Amino acid sequence: MRRLNTKRHFPLVLVLLLLALSAGQAQNTAAPTPDSAPTLSTKAPPVATLPSADRRVTLDVRVTDKSGALIRGLQEQDFTLLDDRNPQKLVAFQAVDSHAPAASDPPVEVILLIDAVNASFRSESYERDEVKKFLLQNGGKLAWPVRFIIFSEKGTKVQNGSSRDGNSLAALYDEYNVALRTSNLTNGGFWGATERIDLSLKALNSIVGYEKTRPGRKLLIWFSRGWPMLSSTRTQLTSKEEEGFFKSVVAASTELRQAHIALYSIDPVGVGTNVMRNSYYEDFLRGVKSPSKVLPGNLGLQVLAVQSGGRVFTSSNDLAAVIAGCVADADAYYILSFDSLPADQADEYHALQVMVAKPGMTARTRTGYYDQR
Length: 373
Prior knowledge:
The chain is of the alpha+beta class. It is built from nine helices and 16 strands.
């Protein structure tokens, strides 16, 4: 299993924690071979940095009917792509269907991220049982290659290689010793919460940096209640800190898009918990257009998930079925590409929307991107 570079530190103010998305030094490593037998490694993959401007924007679009069933067989003329409400000309279109695979289809990989930093003691056992239940369905024959990432206070480890053998993955999962967070993080109040943010954003940064070196589409399923949002600390931010925080938001959005990652947030203990707390993230879903509008909640796990084109699950009695539902996003989807125009300013936010010219159909994809000059 590979260990990612997530060195800990204790900042003096919250904003310095959140700048972790753009921190770190790159380290070279050979990429693991897809579909190889799961093995363990401790070599660190590269850490993400902001990419140079790229005019091409590519979206993975999932279309469903009113009942939630996948819609196959649509053509390019069935779609209208809006960038800040302005229709865009598509420069590339591809329909991907697992029932009729083509040589040009991009590879797909499912990543199951076990979060021990933001976990609760009562969720770990249930989560483990449900993940194994998913892996062992259909006799352990998985539709797509799957691998684990284990995120704990000791670091972030990435399984070396992915596999469609659910039985071997379940056995490997039994070998992982996922230590839950210390009492300092559990009961440490504000500073315990800020350390969890620090560790979580550094882990996300390292994971995305690594995935950018790998081809294809990735469904990153993160089992967690998410890290604290601490939006009551808004008044503590100076103008300089707002600028740095905004750059972290831009980096997170851009890196997830260019790494071709759809992020899914699954709360293992959502059933019976506070409904208002489960929906709190919805206050931060709108894209941030300037440093003066930034809030800590804009970097919440659930917020990043929705904005990446993934989904958020906060309550379910059948976690294995929820995982299968996330994975089903790879069964049939459409790839739409367009070339954005040069921005009037750096880090210019653009809202995205995809419309389908057929009644009762809904398209889900990422909700926006940051354009450059």
